[in-house]
Amino acid sequence: MKTYTVYILKCADNSYYTGVTNDIDRRLYEHENAISPSCYTARKRPVILVFCEHFEDINDAIEFEKQVKGWTRKKKEAIISENWDKLKELSVCKNITSHTNFDKL
């Protein structure tokens, strides 16, 4: 059965790149060797694999990749450090205009 991997790379400039692949070894080689010169990571090498999660269903993998791409740096760093419980805390809206802060206005 084929597996799909959602991965996060830490780039030389300390930015993160999130992707999905069905062959993590090939994809890492492509990033490390700038096979696609227009790719985000080509100008930000070297890159380090800091996170990967495997899926059996490509749709689940794509959905998770899209979710992670929309996350803040702190949320990405929480899963990189395997601190999944911190995601809930980081998801709480702290804007003063949030409905949870209505009584503080």
From TrEMBL:
InterPro entries registered for this protein in UniProt: GIY-YIG_endonuc (IPR000305), GIY-YIG_endonuc_sf (IPR035901), UPF0213_domain (IPR050190)
Annotated GIY-YIG domain residues: 2-78
Pfam families per record: GIY-YIG (PF01541)
Family indicated by similarity: Belongs to the UPF0213 family.
PANTHER family: UPF0213 PROTEIN YHBQ
Protein's name in the database: GIY-YIG nuclease family protein
Lineage: Bacteria, Pseudomonadati, Bacteroidota, Sphingobacteriia, Sphingobacteriales
